[in-house]
UniProtKB/TrEMBL annotation:
<comment type="similarity">
    <text>Belongs to the binding-protein-dependent transport system permease family.</text>
</comment>
<feature type="transmembrane region" description="Helical">
    <location>
        <begin position="104"/>
        <end position="130"/>
    </location>
</feature>
<keyword id="KW-1133">Transmembrane helix</keyword>
<keyword id="KW-0812">Transmembrane</keyword>
<dbReference type="InterPro" id="IPR025966">
    <property type="entry name" value="OppC_N"/>
</dbReference>
<feature type="transmembrane region" description="Helical">
    <location>
        <begin position="31"/>
        <end position="53"/>
    </location>
</feature>
<feature type="domain" description="ABC transmembrane type-1">
    <location>
        <begin position="102"/>
        <end position="302"/>
    </location>
</feature>
<protein>
    <submittedName>
        <fullName>Glutathione transport system permease protein GsiD</fullName>
    </submittedName>
</protein>
<keyword id="KW-0813">Transport</keyword>
<dbReference type="Pfam" id="PF00528">
    <property type="entry name" value="BPD_transp_1"/>
</dbReference>
<dbReference type="InterPro" id="IPR050366">
    <property type="entry name" value="BP-dependent_transpt_permease"/>
</dbReference>
<feature type="transmembrane region" description="Helical">
    <location>
        <begin position="142"/>
        <end position="161"/>
    </location>
</feature>
<dbReference type="GO" id="GO:0005886">
    <property type="term" value="C:plasma membrane"/>
</dbReference>
<dbReference type="InterPro" id="IPR035906">
    <property type="entry name" value="MetI-like_sf"/>
</dbReference>
<feature type="transmembrane region" description="Helical">
    <location>
        <begin position="225"/>
        <end position="247"/>
    </location>
</feature>
<keyword id="KW-1003">Cell membrane</keyword>
<dbReference type="InterPro" id="IPR000515">
    <property type="entry name" value="MetI-like"/>
</dbReference>
Length: 314
């Protein structure tokens, strides 16, 4: 008698990924789950800030100075309005300013890391594959840059770029200048890691086989070597995201980052610091806690990713 049992349906890629080692380690790590959830909630809150925020804190027509210095969850003495996290000196809702500031911080951090990653990967690949005087020049520049703190390099680049930008465009270009400044201060670690991995990969048999069939140097670097050196790069990028967000907050706190018309979390902390000792603690506390939670969650996620992608720890 013929077997009439229906054949099992083929499993999709998502199901195979969910049953893989990476997803299994993720499900077994409470730290990874919590940190990923926190990061995703903040990313979604930043993306949908115009829909979530109860007020537009940067619309002058919607501001009421009578709401200034309202305490969290307490009715204002003049208007009777209640704000979840209070208001600042101009009557802006602190919760709304945090959501909008989070957008700037995340955008600057992600864009700066993306720029640093592209630059570092390109220079690292070229240095290791070409070798010779090209490698010497690139790596000596990297060594010189490593002798200076990254925040000082970013401040120097930001100051020079801002100085050559026309005055009427400085506020409009400040965010992009900030991204370039942080990116140029952070490309070295990507270049060094990619160079080291490429030196190992370029002598393997699959690269030699690609040369034998006539593949060009660019195709070999992009299609053969690059996919095999990306694992450590992804780990560095995750950890660098937290550092880039903190660098942006530091520059904005020092007054050389995001403009007042587009305040980030660092700008909000700088504003709140001026009112800390006069009793309006909430103007500083809530933006600072948001920055701390974001940086901590991204760092913990990066640490887990480093361990999950390390074959020696499996």
């Amino acid at each position: 008698m013929a077997d009439t049992t229906p054949a099992p349906k083929p499993r999709g890629r998502l199901a195979h990924w969910w049953d893989g080692d990476f997803a299994y380690q993720f499900r077994r790590s409470p730290v990874a789950i919590i940190s990923f959830t926190v990061v995703m909630l903040m990313v979604l809150a930043a993306i949908f800030a115009p829909l979530i925020a109860p007020y537009d804190p940067f619309d002058p027509a919607s501001l009421n100075l009578m709401n200034g210095f309202s305490s969290p969850m307490e009715p204002n003495a003049f208007t009777g309005e209640t704000f979840w996290l209070g208001t600042d000196d101009q009557g802006r809702d602190v919760f709304s300013t945090i959501l909008y500031g989070l957008r700037i911080s995340l955008f600057v951090g992600a864009a700066a890391v993306g720029f640093a990653m592209v630059l570092g990967i390109t220079l690292g690949l070229v240095a290791a594959y070409v070798g010779g005087w090209v490698e010497t020049i690139i790596m000596r520049i990297a060594d010189v840059q490593l002798t200076f703190p990254a925040i000082l390099v970013a401040m120097l680049i930001f100051g020079v770029a801002k100085g050559i930008t026309p005055v009427e465009y400085r506020d409009q270009m400040a965010i992009w200048v900030l991204i370039v400044a942080i990116g140029l201060s952070d490309w070295v670690q990507f270049a060094r890691v990619v160079r080291g991995a490429t030196l190992v990969e370029k002598n393997k048999e699959y690269v030699q086989a690609a040369r034998l069939i006539g593949r060009g140097s660019g195709a070999i670097m992009l299609r053969h070597i690059l996919p095999n050196v990306l694992s450590p790069v992804l780990v560095i990028a995750t950890i660098s995201l937290a550092l880039a967000i903190i660098a942006e907050a530091t520059l904005s706190f020092l007054g050389v980052g995001a403009p007042p018309t587009q305040p980030s979390l660092g700008t909000l902390i700088r504003i709140g610091q001026g009112f800390l000792f006069s009793g309006e603690w909430w103007i500083l506390l809530f933006p600072a806690c948001t920055l701390l939670a974001l940086a901590l969650a991204v760092n913990l996620l990066g640490d887990w990713l480093r361990d999950a992608l390390n074959p020696k720890l499996r």
